[in-house]
Batch of 2 targets.
Target 1
Amino acid sequence: MISPIEGFSKLTKEEKIDWIAKHYTVDVATTKRVLKTYWNTDSKLQKLHDEFIENTLTNYYLPFAIAPNFLINNKLYAIPMVIEESSVVAAASKAAKFWLNRGGFKTTILGTEKVGQVHFMYKGNQEKLRLFFDEIKPKLISSAILLTKNMEKRGGGISNIALRNKTADLKNYYQLHCTFETMDAMGANFINSCLEQFAKCLKSEAKNSTLLSDPEIEIVMSILSNYVPNCLVKAEVSCPVEELNEDASFSSDVFARKMVQAVEIAKVEPYRAVTHNKGIMNGVDAVVLATGNDFRAIEAGVHAYASKNGNYTSLTDAKIENGMFTFWIEIPLALGTIGGLTSLHPLVKVALEILQKPSAEELMQLVAVAGLAQNFAAIRSLVTTGIQQGHMKMHLLNMLNQMGATEEEKKKLVHHFKEHTVTHALVNEAFQKLRSN
Ligand code: MEV
């Protein structure tokens, strides 16, 4: 039996690897070799990565790719994507090319408001608490002046603090619901620091207050919210229905109708909506990761937004009106292009440079477009050829690599499967046949 280890974090990297390989893996030498294979030979770069998190053993690679030809608000972009799933980048590129000749993508920022809350308990008189809050609100804001000074210089800061009475949901529960503008920063540290300051100020003002009969305010926690329904961006594509005529086996009318039907299904059917939105997140997460943003925050916020009316539903919408097909997305995205990993990770810097050093607002628009493009590509395949054809073709290389095919063999088999259905069994059969010739 393996016993717990004391002081693992204090071991050197080599010692950590030795320990984990010895205690948790069978082939110790192979584990150690594989882990070390991924070390970077540039020791400075390696150290940088080691220090991003704790207990680092090695690096975990994901492909960094480019989907070119995105025409967004009449400007051409090549979008960096970091993702492991075959066919996502190909699908994005295909959708970009499709819309390149049809006016491209149009985007609008609908809001940039970030949110944070101080959660607290109060047993006393509700009306007196409200009067007390009205009185101290300016003090709460000014108490954070040292934190907000720089943000204000950049045009951001605290937008509002509201007292919310949540006692109908939970006994004695109130919150300071705070909104912020954080400009090009995602703003998590700024917001959390402000909130902790508000909490401190609230507590001390309550103690000194003559208004509150029971001055005891119990702060439970202060934290930003990743639900940002007013940090919202819209991306859209539109063209005459007759221009949707890429696939000879479908008339553009039928194609447009089926696209709209597919979206309508995702709007009413949560089982479909989750997969539909997962496809959107293939594009969103890939760009969010490439640009060093927090994809867990984005995921959590986006899915909460997809359920904002009580039912989980599609993030995209589509319509046919006066012969025009329009397809759009509205998605909350709290992103940053300064701070965090954006100035630390060399690949993130390159990604942002490729994107022409976007502001946070511009990045919101690019990410929304990546999500919309991905959804368009997925539904387009689903309502025409089915998803497996393209997916398995892309997966072919993974299978061939797993089987140990040489470059020459891969070339021959990729050529062969241009005309044949790809399944694991058929690929294996063709591979064995080629080897035995
Ligand atoms: C696969 O990663 C994503 C899709 O399932 C999305 C969809 O069904 O819309 C293809």
Target 2
Amino acid sequence: MKGLGVAIIGSGSAVPTQILTNQDLSRLVETSDEWIESRTGMKKRHLSTGESLSQLAARAAIEALTMASLVPMEIDLLVLATSTPDDLFGSACQVQQLIGATRAVAFDLTAACSGFVFALVTVSQFIRQGVYKNVLVIGADVLSRWVDWGDRTTCVLFADGAGAVVCQASSTEDRLLGFEMCSDGSQNGSLNLAYQGISKNLLDNLTVTTGTYQTISMKGKEVYRFAIEKVPEVIEKALYRANLNTADIDWLILHQANQRIIDAIAERLEIPREKVISNIAKYGNTSAASIPLALDEAVRQGKISPRDTIAVSGFGAGLTWGAAIFQWF
Ligand code: ACO
């Protein structure tokens, strides 16, 4: 079974029903619709009110399976990219149970807003080696759990959602044309959701540290500069590996962090506006969910056609960033 290719054969997405508009935010913190829209492109976002991360992810997964004409029992591997699991030990197994993918091995992968791209690349290695045939890749986050709702510099940005794709082994062609992934821990302080513990004495000379995670902390300008510099580079490297250039891209789908970041990157790559997919106005920054959410919406709107070449790029905490070039099925 060696030497197989990867085909992406279905997509799905899910968002909570509750909506928070820019006007709503202006009642929470000192901000305005005009400030948020002009600086970020966001108009509204969806926030979970009780639906768990696993439930959101399961809804997206079921949609992707339906599009792929597969049943859950046919899934061999399920990878959940998330930074906001219901359970710190991982939520992929809960998703596996919810959808009834009882044959699948399931695990979480954490790479913040790059999570979906990193997960897609990871599962592709298993597929190419002939280890697993049908694979679910889910990007899901409920960032609203970890936002400081009194901090106007972050609370206007983040939101909740899930997106999924089904990847399948193909003996005839490989639709994952190229990829590149990068990390830089020296810039970890630019964006994090850090654990903070307090020392607790258990016995003489024996202490542990107990506590919890804090809220999201971000140096917005640093992240902005990092994204604009590194994302065009990583897309160009992935294109080089695919033996393609920017003119071959039919659709550019970037992590939906900020419309100004999306525009600046497209401009640097000289990719025209009509080839850039963005739904940030409706969903805000949904972290690992944002790329599959935008992909699924564009597929269901009929924008993306069979064999279109799509460049996706995620970037965010870690810092991490990566790109993948693939053809739609
Ligand atoms: N409403 C009104 N004013 C605000 C708000 C707000 N919501 N937030 C900040 N301001 C104020 C600031 O206090 C500042 O005021 P001052 O000049 O009096 O000090 C002023 O607006 C300008 O603030 P800046 O931070 O300089 O605003 P900037 O134009 O850089 O935009 C933003 C901020 C939108 C956060 C931008 O820097 C950005 O998008 N950065 C990248 C963020 C990003 O991509 N993050 C996610 C990565 S994904 C992940 O891994 C989770």
